[in-house]
Amino acid sequence: MKIYFDENMPFAKEFFSELCHLNTGIKDGESGELIPFSGRTLTAEQVADADVLLVRSITQVNEQLLHLNDNISFVGSATIGTDHIDLGYLAKRNITFHSAPGCNAISVAEYVLSALVVLAERYLLTLTSLTVGIVGGGNTGTRLSEKLTALGIEHKICDPLLERKQREIKQAQANGHIPIDNRVYVSLEDALACDVISLHVPKIVGGEYPTDKLINADKLAKLREDQILVSACRGDVIDNDALLALKVAGHGVKIVLDVWQGEPDVLEALIPFTEIATAHIAGYSLEGKARGSEMLYQALCQQLAIAPKYQLANFLPSASIPVIDINQTFDQILLNQLVKMVYDVRRDDAIFRQQLSVQGFDSLRKNYPVRREFSAVTVNLSSTAYSDVPHRLGFTKN
């Protein structure tokens, strides 16, 4: 069996090397292979003999890519989004598809938290006095909500699709056996009125609730001077040209951009107007990327009717600082120190500003330094540190 995988999928060799040598799908005279590729430049000729194709979000999987291939039976995307996949085409050809929903949700939530910690320190803001509008209540929005709850930060969630589903379930519920999402949802206008706006929606073009250029010139014009706008979902959700025009006109909204319209071609004129700018790496923690590999491994094992032999814990290394002892009352200063000790987003911001023109957008992503999640670090609390906030934020408890 020939398994082609994006070269930026961590632990792909560890997870899939044994599977490619199974007899399933191997023709007479052929042997199994595990073949890496560059996601942005993949061609139909390269994958003409693939049995399994494992991609990330930069690879468009459609008829143009697969028209030379008569053998492929499984396509997986080690990402949460599917806007790069022609699902209708795969279904028409009876090609099994799996993605990795939620794989990097914790990583993105921790990126947002690191950004808020940095801006709170930069502008002397009290985090617990802020309100946060989360636009998109899926896996990532939920993980962010959990961390804000741990910190006692008021937040509101806008997700009309989940709100409608919630109503439909409540209306259909007669016997109490269907789990209900009991969150209170707000309108987009209410979310955009919060002190911090954090965007976590997929790219949706058309339909009842499109997100393509969701934050357009009209919505941007209604923002207050003291607000913070964070985008760590898809670059096309914000009209970058309109955002640049707003900032050039002198608007004071503070911007954190991890994603950019038209990637990998970035509107470089916008960068100097941002507080934090990065190369679509919010979900690029080692754990976040590796969970995608693990989830596709489990899905492929299921398709092949074999029991999974490995899990992510088999391959993750220890953190560089594996244990932290806290001997004081937990407060915002300690939060700043703790978060930045594990992940300081200013590192990625500096790399982006200094190296974008030298390396290019995709190279920055490909060569992204190892970054860990809070869970890689065990936090021990003394009796004086009466708050268990670190553990509720995701740090490991001994």
Automatic annotation (TrEMBL):
Residues 39-302 form the D-isomer specific 2-hydroxyacid dehydrogenase catalytic domain. It comes from the Bacteria. It is found in: Cytoplasm. It catalyses: 4-phospho-D-erythronate + NAD(+) = (R)-3-hydroxy-2-oxo-4-phosphooxybutanoate + NADH + H(+). NAD(+) binds at residues 159, 258, 283. Pfam families: 2-Hacid_dh, 2-Hacid_dh_C, DUF3410. Its EC number is 1.1.1.290. Substrate binds at residues 57, 79, 284. Its main location: cytoplasm. GO terms for cellular component: cytosol. The keyword Cytoplasm applies. The active site is at 234, 263, 280 (proton donor). One of its GO terms (biological process) is pyridoxine biosynthetic process. The keyword NAD applies. Residues 315-393 form the Erythronate-4-phosphate dehydrogenase dimerisation domain. Catalyzes the oxidation of erythronate-4-phosphate to 3-hydroxy-2-oxo-4-phosphonooxybutanoate. Homodimer. Belongs to the D-isomer specific 2-hydroxyacid dehydrogenase family. PdxB subfamily. This is Erythronate-4-phosphate dehydrogenase. It comes from Colwellia psychrerythraea. The gene is pdxB.
